[in-house]
Amino acid sequence: MLVYFCLINCFVNGLNVGVVPPLFPEIAAELSLTHTQIGIIWGSWFLGMMLFSLIGGAMADRFGVKRVIAGALIFSAVFCALRGFMPGFRGLTVTMFLFGVSLAFVEPNLTKGIGLWFGRMELGRVSGILLVAFSAGQLLGNMTGASLLSPLLGGWRPTMWLTGAVAVVLLVMWLAGARERPEEEIMAEGAVPQPRILESLRGIIRIKDLYFVCLMEFSVVGSFLAFQGFLPTMLVEKREVTAATAGLLVGLTVLTSGVFNVVGPSVSDRFGVRKPFVWPFLLLGTVGMSMVAFFIGGALIAVLILIGVGAGVTVPLFRTIVLEMQDIDPSYMGSAIGLVFTLNRLGAFILPIAMGIVIDISHLFWPAFLLLGVLNLIAVKLCLAIKETGLRAKRVS
Asked: Per residue in 236-291, pLDDT tens?
């Protein structure tokens, strides 16, 4: 099941995030897009996820992970491919939004799935592995979108069609091999009726630390995705690099993040604590994103690695902290994870648009990236305010 979760996170989620930013210069040239319009297109699929992630997680609580993800993969394939047929800004924005809606029923439930199949001793590591798969898909899209796929297939439109076909393949694999956790292993949870959607929402609505983690996801995940969306455009316009090279540089950050998605959580599992592995690495993101627009050459590469390390360690631990919160009833966990993804996708929707507006008004990129650094600093303060959830803290208490 972990293999299936990772394949979907890689080729349905990650690839479709990573392939778009390197193609933005080509898309913008053909469709005559402004920076604000680029931000709206990039943010629109995150808006779709934001509006429906809570519903998607709650539906999995009610109907099971396999059925909900299977239905969502059908629509993911359709709307992903339709992006390549759109003639202008509005059509591309709408199809990106609808693709995001379909992913709202996929991505939160991958995290719920590992919560069902793995124990607390390994949650951090497995959460990291799941994000490594996402990063691998991003990396593949970053490094091949503009440099290989678009030239080979004849432009950005056939590239979008290809990503839709990949989603169809994953749908077939999921239907053929995926399964729910065996009934005898969840006898305790199965002894009571599965919660209704409104019941799930009422069960998590008053948990303060869950809201803090959601705001951290808004700031950090939203910033990281907005950063990836605009970095290639900045490099092409201000550093005069090719779109293919810009994609490789974005891929460097994603690669670093993917490596530390496993390293950071694994060390955290070993020590049995979470917070000491979160807030120091959030500071790396704060410094890196605030300064990235001022560097070139080797210094730029160093800053991109710094940003990747920060995001790589912290993001899987956000989800691990939620899975470990004792205040959350296990039967409500899908709704809790859905709320997390609602807030991080809200950030991923708002922040690219805000960056585009700042760039169009000031004709400068650095104020937009400084905004992302400030948000990471806010996440540090929120991290210090939540309770420790690791095993070591439980043993002491």
From this structure: 888 878 877 888 888 889 889 888 888 888 899 888 889 999 999 999 989 999 99
C-alpha atoms less than 13 angstroms from C-alpha of 259 in its C-beta half-sphere = 10
Question: 2-179+195-396 belongs to which homologous superfamily?
Answer: MFS general substrate transporter like domains (1.20.1250.20)
* Tokens 């239907």 -> residue: 175
Distance linking the first and last C-alpha atoms of the chain: 34
Q: How confident is the model at residue 366 (pLDDT cuts 50, 70, 90)?
A: very high
Tokens of 117: 């199949």
Tokens for 245, please give them. 């090279």
- Hey, where are the domains in the chain? 2-179+195-396
Task: Give the burial class of 170: count Cβ atoms within 10 A of its Cβ; 0-12 exposed, 13-18 middle, 19 or more buried.
Answer: buried
Q: Which of 176, 188, 204, 252 is nearest to 57 (CA)?
A: 204
Cα(75)–Cα(96) distance, integer angstroms: 12
User: What is residue 305's predicted lDDT score, i.e. its pLDDT?
Assistant: 94
Q: Find, among 230, 214, 281, 315, the residue nearest to 9 by Cα.
A: 315
